[in-house]
Amino acid sequence: MKNVNVLNGLNMVPDHCAIRRIGPADLKDSLTKGANDFLPVLEFLGRPLFTVLFSIFYTLICIYLITTDLPLLFPLMSGFALIGPFAAIGLYEVSRRRELGLDTFWRHVFDLRHAPSLPSILALGLVLLTLFLCWQAAADVLYVWLFGPAAPESFRGFLIEVLTTPRGWTLIILGNAIGFIFAVTVLTISVVSFPLLLDRNVGVAVAVRTSVRAVLANPLTMALWGLIVAVSLAIGFLFAFVGLAFVTPILGHASWHLYRRVVQ
After folding, report:
1. How far apart are CA 166 and CA 176, in angstroms?
2. Domain, as residue range, for 125
3. pTM of the model
4. Are 264 and 18 in contact (CB under 8 A)?
């Protein structure tokens, strides 16, 4: 029975949940509201401390993992976008509480453990983690197929090899093609799933189905949203990871507001 609840939720919401058609203006509005949710952090008054901690923790994890395996540098960097929707669940809660006019003191984020939909959120998070691991495995197999099992001697040598040789370009082209498939899959099943599960206990099946319907109803806008996320994270990485401390929370908060724009 518990497994059924995880899949379908306790309060069943039919498949015909109203989906709105949105455009670039809605994405701009979501990002603006996401930035407004993040701005109190800059005041450092303690209430939004969770966002500060999330940003620092996320950045440190990125730095640690990327320095452990040079050939998987790009797959790891791009792979964080795959688990981002689940990692940002606390940011959704902050935005939800601000929307309701409730206190956003950081300890309230831990109230999520009492959420009726927590099993569904964890189950869907496990799906994203599995996709992340599959992407890493696929990238590793591709690298070994082209370059062999030996690790590169230096970052400079690895970079020259990738950018100036036929097998390096093959790695770039095939790697991006495979990564694109994973990215589209995750975007499709999760763009509104986690905020929906936090907002209503509908179960994984309904949440994923609603997310897929939202993407199918707004393919170009959702593609633009995916591009915004990818470019924003890339900029965050380029600024010595410091940019992630600003980019990731804004995108997390914006995702909640995007859900509000899409799901009626």
Report:
1. 15
2. 22-262
3. 0.82
4. yes
